[in-house]
Amino acid sequence: MEPENYKTIKSPAKGLYKERGSRFLSFAFPVGNQEEIRPILDRIRKEYHDARHHCYAYMIGIEKLNRRVNDDGEPSGTAGRPILGQINSFGLTNILIVVSRYFGGTLLGVSGLMNAYKTAAADAIRNSEIVERALHEFYEIRYPYISMNDIMKILKEEEAGLSGQSFELECSMIIDFRISAREKIIGRLSRIEGLRHRYIETR
Asked: What would the pLDDT profile of 113-127 be if each residue is shown by its tens digit?
């Protein structure tokens, strides 16, 4: 069976870990797609410009295949991977965690660094509210204007979302609904003459 829910964090949260003079500030953000990552990283780097490293990891999507780690100058595998490990430990996705390090003058070694980044990431997650969200499928539908009332009736009855409406000779809109409602909603819409639908994404 297809998974219909996933766990993520409700809103941004912060954490902190200190070790031998070094401070590790952690920031967790809910994200919906890869395009949201860069602006957040740029903002953190600007706001905490005096930090020596800004290491991060993110996970996006129910399949948990869209992920990346970055050690930002720390020894390979000592920062991004431990951060990602905490994302996995809490069973989360659609999340970005950045850990900014202020160096305290004492080297921590490989195991010390791994523990510091892991603990800082975990602190940000524990300070956040973990929520379970339903997966929605997004479709573009195109249809003649005369069918508008029938379509809106179906979407209202099935509690589907809609966005990106366009009213021209051929109308279009983006609709979304829970995966479990796919067969019923697409089935009803397909009976409307002249309507075409195209799958966009699941998130």
From this structure: 999 999 999 999 999
User: Which of 100, 115, 132 lies at the terminal end of a domain, its last residue?
Assistant: 132
String of DSSP letters for 55-98 = EEEEEESTT--EEEEE-TTSSTTSSHHHHHHHHHHTTB-SEEEE
CA distance 74 to 55: 8
Radius of gyration of the chain (CA): 22
Please enumerate in sequence order all residues whose Cβ is within 8 A of that of 5, keeping only pairs 6 or more positions apart, or say none: 132, 133, 134, 135
Cα–Cα nearest to 65, from 82, 38, 37, 88: 88
Give pLDDT tens digits for 89-108.
999 999 999 999 999 888 89
Domain coverage including residue 90: 5-132
Write down the pTM of the prediction.
Answer: 0.79
CA 95 to chain centre: 5
The total number of structural domains in the chain stands at 2
